[in-house]
Amino acid sequence: RFTLKQEEENRRNTKMLHEKMREHLRRKEDRYSKEVEVKQYLELTFQAVEVKVKTERNNLNQVEFMILVKKQKTRFTKKHMLQEESAMLRLEIDALKNQHREKEENYFEDIEILKVKNDDLQKAIKLNEEMLTKTISYYTGQLNAQTAENTVLNSKL
To answer: N or C: fewer beta carbons within 10 Å in the chain?
Structure first.
């Protein structure tokens, strides 16, 4: 009768341990899911930044094309008008190139930051996976020990 109570106690303890392990693993799975969402968000952000850079390059090409068209039209005007407009267009090109260069540098900095963050998240995911594997292994060992103990107790009954 005493061993039956012990066995029931052991079963309850094992069941509680099993439930704790299940809850612990569920929380870890939730955390991993959140990390995957963050990674996906960062990848989408990275892609959006790349699209912005391409758009800015296209805009610069369009502006340069427009400037060339303007230059052709001004050839028919007086030399003085042509020189003034040409100087203004060069300043505009320089300003646009400087703006584009600054934006492009900012985008590349953002890309590098996102790459570093992505690398950090990959490392964190790997560490969490290793920790989860160790935890699972540990609790599996604990469960096996409890199972063996239950088997011994059952055989004694």
So the answer is: N
Query: How many domains in the chain?
Result: 1
DSSP 77-141: S-HHHHHHHHHHHHHHHHHHHHHHHHHHHHHHHHHHHHHHHHHHHHHHHHHHHHHHHHHHHHHHH
81/71 Cα distance (integer angstroms): 11
Whole-model pTM over 0.70: no
In which domain, by residue range, is 49 found? 2-156
Residue whose C-alpha is closest to residue 101's, from 63, 49, 60, 50: 60
Question: pLDDT per residue over 40-98, tens digit each?
Answer: 999 999 999 999 999 999 999 998 988 887 776 666 667 777 678 889 999 999 999 99
Please report, for the domain that includes residue 143, its CATH number.
1.10.287
